[in-house]
Write a structure and sequence with these properties.
heterodimer; A: alpha+beta; Alpha-Beta Plaits; two-stranded antiparallel ribbon; 2 helices; 4 strands; globular; B: alpha+beta; Cytochrome p450; three-stranded antiparallel β-sheet; 48% helix
Protein backbone atom coordinates (compact mmCIF):
# COMPACT_ATOMS: atom_id res chain seq x y z
CA UNK A 1 0.00 0.00 0.00
CA UNK A 2 1.39 3.39 -1.01
CA UNK A 3 0.79 6.45 1.05
CA UNK A 4 1.90 10.07 1.31
CA UNK A 5 2.85 11.68 4.60
CA UNK A 6 3.27 15.36 5.46
CA UNK A 7 5.45 16.00 8.49
CA UNK A 8 3.57 18.79 10.31
CA UNK A 9 6.77 19.76 12.14
CA UNK A 10 8.45 20.60 8.84
CA UNK A 11 5.57 21.89 6.68
CA UNK A 12 5.52 25.70 6.60
CA UNK A 13 2.67 26.21 4.15
CA UNK A 14 4.53 26.77 0.89
CA UNK A 15 1.53 25.11 -0.86
CA UNK A 16 3.51 23.72 -3.80
CA UNK A 17 2.33 20.13 -3.07
CA UNK A 18 -1.21 21.31 -3.61
CA UNK A 19 -0.24 22.73 -7.01
CA UNK A 20 1.38 19.39 -7.96
CA UNK A 21 -1.31 17.09 -6.59
CA UNK A 22 -4.46 18.89 -5.42
CA UNK A 23 -6.35 15.62 -5.05
CA UNK A 24 -3.81 14.30 -2.53
CA UNK A 25 -2.69 17.37 -0.57
CA UNK A 26 -5.22 19.79 0.84
CA UNK A 27 -4.38 23.05 2.60
CA UNK A 28 -5.53 24.16 6.00
CA UNK A 29 -7.89 27.14 5.70
CA UNK A 30 -6.17 28.94 8.58
CA UNK A 31 -2.48 28.75 7.73
CA UNK A 32 -2.18 26.92 4.40
CA UNK A 33 -0.28 23.99 5.90
CA UNK A 34 -0.77 20.76 3.96
CA UNK A 35 -2.49 17.55 4.95
CA UNK A 36 -3.07 14.31 3.05
CA UNK A 37 -6.64 13.40 2.17
CA UNK A 38 -5.99 10.04 0.44
CA UNK A 39 -5.33 6.91 2.51
CA UNK A 40 -4.02 4.77 -0.32
CA UNK A 41 -2.43 6.20 -3.44
CA UNK A 42 -3.16 4.77 -6.89
CA UNK A 43 -0.08 4.18 -9.09
CA UNK A 44 -0.88 7.39 -10.96
CA UNK A 45 -1.15 9.30 -7.68
CA UNK A 46 2.15 7.87 -6.47
CA UNK A 47 3.87 9.57 -9.36
CA UNK A 48 2.37 12.96 -8.56
CA UNK A 49 2.94 12.52 -4.85
CA UNK A 50 6.60 11.91 -5.68
CA UNK A 51 6.63 15.16 -7.63
CA UNK A 52 5.21 16.96 -4.62
CA UNK A 53 7.89 15.29 -2.48
CA UNK A 54 10.66 16.52 -4.78
CA UNK A 55 9.16 20.01 -5.04
CA UNK A 56 8.66 20.63 -1.32
CA UNK A 57 11.05 23.39 -0.19
CA UNK A 58 10.95 22.10 3.40
CA UNK A 59 11.32 18.41 2.46
CA UNK A 60 8.26 17.77 4.58
CA UNK A 61 6.72 15.10 2.35
CA UNK A 62 7.52 11.41 2.15
CA UNK A 63 5.93 8.78 -0.06
CA UNK A 64 5.99 5.23 1.26
CA UNK A 65 5.39 2.25 -1.01
CA UNK B 1 35.41 24.22 10.45
CA UNK B 2 37.50 25.93 13.06
CA UNK B 3 37.43 29.70 13.03
CA UNK B 4 41.04 29.90 11.82
CA UNK B 5 40.30 28.05 8.60
CA UNK B 6 37.10 29.78 7.64
CA UNK B 7 37.04 31.10 4.08
CA UNK B 8 37.17 34.87 4.35
CA UNK B 9 35.79 37.07 1.57
CA UNK B 10 34.86 40.71 1.17
CA UNK B 11 31.25 40.25 0.21
CA UNK B 12 28.70 43.07 0.44
CA UNK B 13 25.22 42.25 -0.85
CA UNK B 14 24.49 45.99 -1.11
CA UNK B 15 27.32 46.96 -3.43
CA UNK B 16 27.23 47.63 -7.15
CA UNK B 17 29.39 44.64 -8.00
CA UNK B 18 26.81 42.26 -6.55
CA UNK B 19 24.03 43.95 -8.49
CA UNK B 20 25.98 43.98 -11.74
CA UNK B 21 27.06 40.34 -11.49
CA UNK B 22 23.90 38.79 -10.01
CA UNK B 23 23.54 35.84 -9.93
CA UNK B 24 27.10 34.92 -10.99
CA UNK B 25 28.63 36.11 -7.69
CA UNK B 26 26.89 33.19 -6.01
CA UNK B 27 29.06 30.68 -7.84
CA UNK B 28 32.30 32.48 -7.10
CA UNK B 29 31.52 32.35 -3.38
CA UNK B 30 30.01 28.87 -3.27
CA UNK B 31 32.92 27.32 -5.13
CA UNK B 32 35.14 28.47 -2.25
CA UNK B 33 32.72 27.21 0.38
CA UNK B 34 28.91 27.02 0.77
CA UNK B 35 29.32 29.08 3.94
CA UNK B 36 31.86 31.90 3.74
CA UNK B 37 32.78 34.60 6.22
CA UNK B 38 32.55 38.15 4.93
CA UNK B 39 34.70 40.76 6.63
CA UNK B 40 32.22 43.50 5.66
CA UNK B 41 29.60 44.98 8.03
CA UNK B 42 31.52 43.90 11.16
CA UNK B 43 31.76 40.34 9.88
CA UNK B 44 29.06 37.83 9.01
CA UNK B 45 28.58 34.34 7.62
CA UNK B 46 27.09 34.12 4.14
CA UNK B 47 25.17 30.95 3.29
CA UNK B 48 25.20 30.27 -0.45
CA UNK B 49 24.66 26.48 -0.54
CA UNK B 50 21.08 25.21 -0.74
CA UNK B 51 21.83 22.05 1.30
CA UNK B 52 23.29 24.06 4.18
CA UNK B 53 20.42 26.53 4.02
CA UNK B 54 17.89 23.69 4.27
CA UNK B 55 19.71 22.21 7.24
CA UNK B 56 20.12 25.43 9.19
CA UNK B 57 16.82 27.15 8.44
CA UNK B 58 14.83 24.71 10.51
CA UNK B 59 17.07 25.20 13.55
CA UNK B 60 15.07 27.78 15.48
CA UNK B 61 17.05 26.59 18.50
CA UNK B 62 20.26 27.94 16.94
CA UNK B 63 19.10 30.92 14.86
CA UNK B 64 17.47 34.06 16.15
CA UNK B 65 15.67 36.80 14.21
CA UNK B 66 15.41 38.93 17.33
CA UNK B 67 16.17 42.64 17.11
CA UNK B 68 16.85 44.22 20.47
CA UNK B 69 18.25 47.70 19.88
CA UNK B 70 17.70 48.72 23.51
CA UNK B 71 19.56 45.73 24.92
CA UNK B 72 16.60 44.47 26.94
CA UNK B 73 17.10 40.79 26.09
CA UNK B 74 20.23 39.88 24.16
CA UNK B 75 21.25 42.93 22.13
CA UNK B 76 20.73 40.99 18.89
CA UNK B 77 20.68 43.06 15.70
CA UNK B 78 17.72 41.63 13.78
CA UNK B 79 17.39 40.54 10.19
CA UNK B 80 19.28 43.31 8.39
CA UNK B 81 23.04 43.23 7.87
CA UNK B 82 24.19 45.84 8.68
CA UNK B 83 21.66 46.53 11.43
CA UNK B 84 18.85 48.81 10.33
CA UNK B 85 16.64 51.05 12.39
CA UNK B 86 16.34 51.62 16.09
CA UNK B 87 13.09 49.73 16.49
CA UNK B 88 12.03 46.14 16.03
CA UNK B 89 10.62 45.40 12.58
CA UNK B 90 7.52 43.47 13.61
CA UNK B 91 7.23 39.70 13.97
CA UNK B 92 9.99 38.98 11.43
CA UNK B 93 12.36 40.34 14.08
CA UNK B 94 10.92 38.04 16.74
CA UNK B 95 11.44 34.37 17.55
CA UNK B 96 8.87 31.73 18.42
CA UNK B 97 6.74 31.58 20.51
CA UNK B 98 6.16 35.36 20.31
CA UNK B 99 6.50 35.37 16.51
CA UNK B 100 4.08 32.43 16.20
CA UNK B 101 1.40 34.37 18.08
CA UNK B 102 1.51 37.27 15.62
CA UNK B 103 1.35 34.88 12.69
CA UNK B 104 -1.55 33.00 14.25
CA UNK B 105 -3.48 36.29 14.31
CA UNK B 106 -2.59 37.22 10.71
CA UNK B 107 -2.65 33.80 9.00
CA UNK B 108 -6.45 33.80 8.61
CA UNK B 109 -6.08 36.89 6.37
CA UNK B 110 -3.31 35.39 4.24
CA UNK B 111 -4.06 31.69 3.83
CA UNK B 112 -4.69 30.31 0.33
CA UNK B 113 -8.43 30.24 1.03
CA UNK B 114 -8.53 33.75 2.53
CA UNK B 115 -6.67 35.56 -0.23
CA UNK B 116 -9.12 34.27 -2.85
CA UNK B 117 -11.74 36.79 -1.71
CA UNK B 118 -9.51 39.54 -3.13
CA UNK B 119 -9.71 38.18 -6.69
CA UNK B 120 -12.26 40.80 -7.84
CA UNK B 121 -10.26 43.58 -6.18
CA UNK B 122 -7.06 42.54 -7.94
CA UNK B 123 -8.96 42.21 -11.22
CA UNK B 124 -10.51 45.69 -10.97
CA UNK B 125 -7.29 47.50 -10.06
CA UNK B 126 -5.20 45.62 -12.60
CA UNK B 127 -7.65 46.44 -15.35
CA UNK B 128 -7.87 50.10 -14.32
CA UNK B 129 -4.09 50.57 -14.20
CA UNK B 130 -3.78 49.17 -17.69
CA UNK B 131 -6.80 51.13 -18.93
CA UNK B 132 -5.21 54.38 -17.76
CA UNK B 133 -2.30 53.83 -20.16
CA UNK B 134 -3.70 51.53 -22.84
CA UNK B 135 -4.65 54.28 -25.28
CA UNK B 136 -1.26 56.00 -25.04
CA UNK B 137 0.94 53.07 -26.06
CA UNK B 138 3.45 53.68 -23.28
CA UNK B 139 3.74 53.06 -19.57
CA UNK B 140 6.22 52.57 -16.79
CA UNK B 141 5.69 48.98 -15.62
CA UNK B 142 6.82 49.98 -12.11
CA UNK B 143 5.25 53.42 -11.60
CA UNK B 144 1.99 52.86 -13.50
CA UNK B 145 1.35 49.22 -12.79
CA UNK B 146 3.44 47.02 -10.51
CA UNK B 147 3.72 49.63 -7.74
CA UNK B 148 0.02 50.30 -7.55
CA UNK B 149 -1.98 47.07 -7.32
CA UNK B 150 0.01 45.33 -4.55
CA UNK B 151 0.15 48.58 -2.56
CA UNK B 152 -3.56 49.36 -2.74
CA UNK B 153 -4.33 45.74 -1.89
CA UNK B 154 -2.10 45.98 1.17
CA UNK B 155 -3.97 49.11 2.28
CA UNK B 156 -7.29 47.29 1.90
CA UNK B 157 -6.16 44.26 3.88
CA UNK B 158 -4.79 46.38 6.70
CA UNK B 159 -7.99 48.45 6.85
CA UNK B 160 -6.28 51.73 5.89
CA UNK B 161 -7.63 54.32 3.40
CA UNK B 162 -6.85 53.05 -0.09
CA UNK B 163 -5.71 56.39 -1.47
CA UNK B 164 -3.01 56.56 1.23
CA UNK B 165 -0.95 54.01 -0.72
CA UNK B 166 0.80 56.92 -2.37
CA UNK B 167 2.00 58.33 0.95
CA UNK B 168 3.72 55.06 1.84
CA UNK B 169 4.94 54.17 -1.63
CA UNK B 170 8.15 56.18 -1.84
CA UNK B 171 9.27 55.56 1.76
CA UNK B 172 8.55 51.82 1.40
CA UNK B 173 10.67 51.57 -1.72
CA UNK B 174 13.47 53.83 -0.45
CA UNK B 175 13.69 51.71 2.66
CA UNK B 176 14.70 48.68 0.62
CA UNK B 177 16.81 50.10 -2.17
CA UNK B 178 19.02 52.54 -0.25
CA UNK B 179 22.49 51.11 0.32
CA UNK B 180 24.04 51.64 3.80
CA UNK B 181 26.81 53.82 2.31
CA UNK B 182 24.43 55.83 0.09
CA UNK B 183 24.32 59.63 0.44
CA UNK B 184 20.54 59.16 0.64
CA UNK B 185 20.72 57.03 3.78
CA UNK B 186 19.73 59.83 6.20
CA UNK B 187 16.90 60.90 3.91
CA UNK B 188 15.69 57.30 3.84
CA UNK B 189 15.78 57.08 7.64
CA UNK B 190 13.75 60.33 7.89
CA UNK B 191 11.16 59.17 5.41
CA UNK B 192 10.88 55.78 7.14
CA UNK B 193 10.37 57.50 10.50
CA UNK B 194 7.62 59.68 9.01
CA UNK B 195 5.95 56.62 7.55
CA UNK B 196 6.09 54.76 10.85
CA UNK B 197 4.78 57.88 12.61
CA UNK B 198 1.77 58.00 10.33
CA UNK B 199 1.11 54.29 10.79
CA UNK B 200 1.34 54.77 14.54
CA UNK B 201 -1.37 57.43 14.30
CA UNK B 202 -3.59 55.03 12.38
CA UNK B 203 -3.06 52.29 14.93
CA UNK B 204 -4.32 54.75 17.56
CA UNK B 205 -7.30 55.70 15.36
CA UNK B 206 -8.23 52.05 14.89
CA UNK B 207 -8.41 51.65 18.66
CA UNK B 208 -11.58 53.73 18.62
CA UNK B 209 -12.66 53.21 15.01
CA UNK B 210 -12.21 49.52 14.24
CA UNK B 211 -12.39 48.46 10.59
CA UNK B 212 -12.23 45.01 9.03
CA UNK B 213 -8.61 44.12 8.40
CA UNK B 214 -5.34 43.16 9.96
CA UNK B 215 -4.80 46.26 12.15
CA UNK B 216 -8.03 45.75 14.04
CA UNK B 217 -7.33 42.02 14.28
CA UNK B 218 -3.97 42.80 15.91
CA UNK B 219 -5.59 45.31 18.26
CA UNK B 220 -8.32 42.87 19.26
CA UNK B 221 -6.01 39.90 19.79
CA UNK B 222 -4.77 38.69 23.13
CA UNK B 223 -1.66 36.68 23.90
CA UNK B 224 -1.41 35.17 27.37
CA UNK B 225 -4.46 37.21 28.31
CA UNK B 226 -2.84 40.53 27.36
CA UNK B 227 -3.46 42.81 24.40
CA UNK B 228 -0.40 43.20 22.16
CA UNK B 229 1.91 46.17 22.83
CA UNK B 230 1.62 49.17 20.49
CA UNK B 231 5.22 48.93 19.30
CA UNK B 232 4.75 45.30 18.29
CA UNK B 233 1.65 46.22 16.31
CA UNK B 234 3.22 49.29 14.67
CA UNK B 235 6.35 47.34 13.74
CA UNK B 236 4.17 44.60 12.29
CA UNK B 237 2.08 47.02 10.22
CA UNK B 238 5.31 48.56 8.87
CA UNK B 239 6.55 45.07 8.04
CA UNK B 240 3.33 44.22 6.20
CA UNK B 241 3.62 47.42 4.19
CA UNK B 242 7.24 46.68 3.31
CA UNK B 243 6.42 43.09 2.40
CA UNK B 244 3.23 43.97 0.60
CA UNK B 245 4.51 46.91 -1.42
CA UNK B 246 7.84 45.93 -2.78
CA UNK B 247 8.19 42.24 -3.36
CA UNK B 248 5.40 41.45 -5.82
CA UNK B 249 6.32 44.67 -7.59
CA UNK B 250 9.91 43.51 -8.01
CA UNK B 251 8.91 40.05 -9.20
CA UNK B 252 6.64 41.55 -11.84
CA UNK B 253 9.30 43.96 -13.03
CA UNK B 254 11.90 41.19 -13.22
CA UNK B 255 9.57 38.91 -15.16
CA UNK B 256 8.47 41.65 -17.57
CA UNK B 257 12.07 42.67 -18.15
CA UNK B 258 13.05 39.07 -18.94
CA UNK B 259 10.03 38.58 -21.21
CA UNK B 260 11.12 41.65 -23.18
CA UNK B 261 13.98 39.58 -24.53
CA UNK B 262 11.84 36.41 -24.80
CA UNK B 263 8.64 37.47 -26.58
CA UNK B 264 7.99 33.93 -27.85
CA UNK B 265 7.42 32.82 -24.25
CA UNK B 266 4.55 35.28 -23.71
CA UNK B 267 1.48 33.63 -25.34
CA UNK B 268 1.69 30.39 -23.38
CA UNK B 269 1.79 32.29 -20.08
CA UNK B 270 -1.54 33.88 -21.04
CA UNK B 271 -3.19 30.70 -22.30
CA UNK B 272 -1.94 27.92 -20.02
CA UNK B 273 -2.59 28.37 -16.27
CA UNK B 274 -0.49 25.34 -15.29
CA UNK B 275 2.43 26.78 -17.23
CA UNK B 276 1.95 30.11 -15.51
CA UNK B 277 2.03 28.31 -12.13
CA UNK B 278 5.39 26.73 -12.94
CA UNK B 279 6.78 29.91 -14.49
CA UNK B 280 5.83 31.88 -11.37
CA UNK B 281 7.96 29.57 -9.24
CA UNK B 282 10.82 29.90 -11.73
CA UNK B 283 10.67 33.70 -11.71
CA UNK B 284 10.58 33.56 -7.92
CA UNK B 285 13.62 31.29 -7.86
CA UNK B 286 15.65 33.26 -10.36
CA UNK B 287 14.97 36.82 -9.20
CA UNK B 288 14.38 36.02 -5.52
CA UNK B 289 12.85 39.46 -4.82
CA UNK B 290 13.53 39.23 -1.06
CA UNK B 291 17.18 38.29 -1.36
CA UNK B 292 17.81 36.86 2.06
CA UNK B 293 17.64 37.38 5.78
CA UNK B 294 20.07 38.09 8.59
CA UNK B 295 20.18 35.94 11.70
CA UNK B 296 22.12 35.73 14.95
CA UNK B 297 23.60 32.42 16.14
CA UNK B 298 22.34 31.78 19.67
CA UNK B 299 24.90 29.20 20.86
CA UNK B 300 28.17 27.59 19.82
CA UNK B 301 27.14 24.85 17.45
CA UNK B 302 27.93 22.68 14.45
CA UNK B 303 25.52 22.43 11.53
CA UNK B 304 26.13 20.51 8.30
CA UNK B 305 29.79 20.21 9.28
CA UNK B 306 30.36 23.92 9.93
CA UNK B 307 31.07 25.42 13.33
CA UNK B 308 29.53 28.65 14.47
CA UNK B 309 29.85 30.69 17.64
CA UNK B 310 27.20 32.30 19.81
CA UNK B 311 26.60 35.86 18.67
CA UNK B 312 27.84 35.32 15.10
CA UNK B 313 25.84 37.12 12.44
CA UNK B 314 24.68 35.14 9.41
CA UNK B 315 23.11 36.12 6.10
CA UNK B 316 20.90 33.41 4.65
CA UNK B 317 21.14 34.26 0.97
CA UNK B 318 17.98 32.77 -0.47
CA UNK B 319 18.99 34.26 -3.81
CA UNK B 320 22.40 32.61 -3.99
CA UNK B 321 21.05 29.29 -2.65
CA UNK B 322 18.38 29.43 -5.38
CA UNK B 323 21.25 29.40 -7.90
CA UNK B 324 23.01 26.38 -6.43
CA UNK B 325 23.57 23.94 -9.32
CA UNK B 326 23.46 20.99 -6.89
CA UNK B 327 19.74 21.64 -6.39
CA UNK B 328 18.88 23.56 -9.57
CA UNK B 329 20.61 22.38 -12.78
CA UNK B 330 21.67 25.24 -15.08
CA UNK B 331 20.70 27.59 -12.28
CA UNK B 332 21.27 30.85 -14.14
CA UNK B 333 18.91 29.89 -16.97
CA UNK B 334 15.25 30.72 -16.63
CA UNK B 335 13.47 27.49 -17.55
CA UNK B 336 9.81 28.40 -17.27
CA UNK B 337 8.58 24.84 -16.74
CA UNK B 338 11.40 23.86 -14.37
CA UNK B 339 10.35 21.04 -12.08
CA UNK B 340 11.04 20.17 -9.35
CA UNK B 341 11.73 23.66 -8.10
CA UNK B 342 11.99 23.62 -4.30
CA UNK B 343 13.26 27.20 -4.17
CA UNK B 344 13.72 29.31 -1.07
CA UNK B 345 12.40 32.59 -2.49
CA UNK B 346 9.86 32.89 0.35
CA UNK B 347 12.42 31.82 2.91
CA UNK B 348 12.54 28.45 4.65
CA UNK B 349 11.39 27.46 8.11
CA UNK B 350 9.04 29.25 10.47
CA UNK B 351 9.63 32.65 8.86
CA UNK B 352 8.26 31.60 5.45
CA UNK B 353 6.86 34.77 3.84
CA UNK B 354 3.42 35.16 5.37
CA UNK B 355 2.17 36.87 2.20
CA UNK B 356 3.32 34.16 -0.22
CA UNK B 357 -0.20 33.11 -1.19
CA UNK B 358 -1.24 36.67 -1.88
CA UNK B 359 1.95 37.37 -3.82
CA UNK B 360 1.39 34.42 -6.13
CA UNK B 361 -2.25 35.29 -6.73
CA UNK B 362 -1.49 38.93 -7.45
CA UNK B 363 1.57 38.23 -9.59
CA UNK B 364 -0.13 35.65 -11.81
CA UNK B 365 -3.16 37.80 -12.48
CA UNK B 366 -1.16 40.95 -13.17
CA UNK B 367 1.40 39.24 -15.40
CA UNK B 368 -1.28 37.49 -17.44
CA UNK B 369 -3.24 40.71 -17.94
CA UNK B 370 -0.15 42.71 -18.88
CA UNK B 371 0.76 40.11 -21.50
CA UNK B 372 -2.81 39.77 -22.76
CA UNK B 373 -3.41 43.49 -23.21
CA UNK B 374 0.08 44.65 -24.20
CA UNK B 375 1.27 41.54 -26.07
CA UNK B 376 3.91 43.33 -28.13
CA UNK B 377 5.41 45.58 -25.42
CA UNK B 378 9.09 46.51 -25.64
CA UNK B 379 11.11 47.79 -22.69
CA UNK B 380 12.72 51.19 -23.21
CA UNK B 381 16.16 50.19 -21.93
CA UNK B 382 17.44 53.76 -21.80
CA UNK B 383 14.87 54.55 -19.09
CA UNK B 384 15.24 51.32 -17.14
CA UNK B 385 16.64 51.78 -13.66
CA UNK B 386 17.46 49.01 -11.19
CA UNK B 387 17.53 49.58 -7.44
CA UNK B 388 20.80 51.09 -6.17
CA UNK B 389 21.15 48.11 -3.87
CA UNK B 390 19.50 44.78 -4.65
CA UNK B 391 20.81 43.30 -1.39
CA UNK B 392 17.45 43.62 0.35
CA UNK B 393 15.03 43.55 -2.58
CA UNK B 394 16.00 42.75 -6.16
CA UNK B 395 13.87 45.30 -7.97
CA UNK B 396 13.52 48.25 -10.30
CA UNK B 397 12.79 51.92 -9.74
CA UNK B 398 11.61 52.39 -13.31
CA UNK B 399 10.84 50.08 -16.20
CA UNK B 400 9.35 52.08 -19.08
CA UNK B 401 7.88 50.35 -22.13
CA UNK B 402 6.01 51.03 -25.36
CA UNK B 403 3.32 48.92 -27.04
CA UNK B 404 0.61 49.11 -29.69
CA UNK B 405 -2.23 51.14 -28.15
CA UNK B 406 -5.48 49.33 -27.32
CA UNK B 407 -8.97 50.04 -26.03
CA UNK B 408 -10.17 50.71 -22.51
CA UNK B 409 -12.17 47.94 -20.85
CA UNK B 410 -13.60 49.90 -17.92
CA UNK B 411 -13.53 53.00 -15.70
CA UNK B 412 -10.31 54.77 -14.66
CA UNK B 413 -8.26 54.04 -11.54
CA UNK B 414 -9.57 57.02 -9.56
CA UNK B 415 -13.14 55.80 -10.04
CA UNK B 416 -12.27 52.20 -9.14
CA UNK B 417 -10.48 53.44 -6.01
CA UNK B 418 -13.51 55.50 -4.90
CA UNK B 419 -15.89 52.65 -5.66
CA UNK B 420 -13.89 50.07 -3.70
CA UNK B 421 -13.39 52.48 -0.79
CA UNK B 422 -17.16 52.89 -0.60
CA UNK B 423 -17.67 49.11 -0.69
CA UNK B 424 -15.12 48.55 2.07
CA UNK B 425 -16.55 51.39 4.15
CA UNK B 426 -19.99 49.78 3.90
CA UNK B 427 -18.76 46.62 5.63
CA UNK B 428 -19.83 46.48 9.27
CA UNK B 429 -17.19 47.45 11.83
CA UNK B 430 -15.78 44.54 13.88
CA UNK B 431 -16.28 44.40 17.63
CA UNK B 432 -13.97 46.67 19.59
CA UNK B 433 -12.61 44.35 22.26
CA UNK B 434 -10.26 46.95 23.73
CA UNK B 435 -13.05 49.46 24.22
CA UNK B 436 -15.16 46.72 25.80
CA UNK B 437 -12.41 46.21 28.38
CA UNK B 438 -11.48 49.85 28.69
CA UNK B 439 -7.99 49.07 27.36
CA UNK B 440 -7.45 51.94 24.92
Amino acid sequence: MARAIVNPELCQGHTLCNFAAPDIFHLNDEDGHAFVVVDELTPEQVERARQAELGCPERAITVEE
Amino acid sequence: MASNDRVVVEFDQHNTEYRETYPAKAHELREQCPVVWSSKHDGFWVVTGHEVLSAISKRTDLLSNDHDPDGERNGYRGISIPERGTTRGGFIEMDPPEQSEYRRILNPFLSPAAVKVWDPFIADFTRACIDDVIETGRLDFVDDFANIVPAVLTMAMLGLPLADWEIYCEPAHMQVYTAPDSPNWDRMVDSTMRMVGRLAEYVQIRKTEPRPGMITALLNAKVMDEFLPDDGIIGTVSLLIGGGFDTTTSLLAGALDWLDAHPDERPRLVDDPRHLDLATEEFLRHFTPAQGGGRTITQDCEVAGFQFSAGDRMFLSYAMCNHDPASFPDPDDIVLDRFPNPHAAFGLGVHRCIGSNLARLDFKYMLREALRRMPDYRIDHAGKEQYESIGTINGFKHLPATFTPGRREGPPLAEVMADWQARLDAEPAPENLRAAEGAL
